[in-house]
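Go through this pair.

…
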Amino acid sequence: MNILVRFAGPHVRMLIDIHQEGARVSDNESDFDRLQGTWAITALEMDGKQISPHDFAAARIVVEGDCFTSLGMGAAYSGTLSLDPSANPRALDMRFDDGPEKGNTNPCIYEIAGDVWKLCIATRGTVRPKAFTSQPGSGFAVETLERDHNSTE
């Protein structure tokens, strides 16, 4: 299973919202199944500020099983994902096993629909976001990713 997560820097985790009209998902397909593959960041907001697409144009998140690797945003990050699709909103924890954030866990919320994955990531502290918003000083990052069908990852 491959998941690509993008970061805007060492304090940004991922926030992804995925929406696709007409996307049909099997009732038996898990969120982990849907997240497998390589993802490209299409929008990023950190602490209420929109980040220029130029800053994350090469960023990719690769998800394989419950492991993720984030590439193209400076340092490489990797770790494991833990999902709670029964939470409202759906909850995700990113535990960093390698890179500058090694040992840290970022609580997140997520949505996934078709080839779009949306995240709201708490880049500081242990308080999980409750909505897909990023206010100044919140330490929250909202990230929208789209599946990268051209990737060789």
Residues 1-27 have pLDDT under 50 and may be disordered.
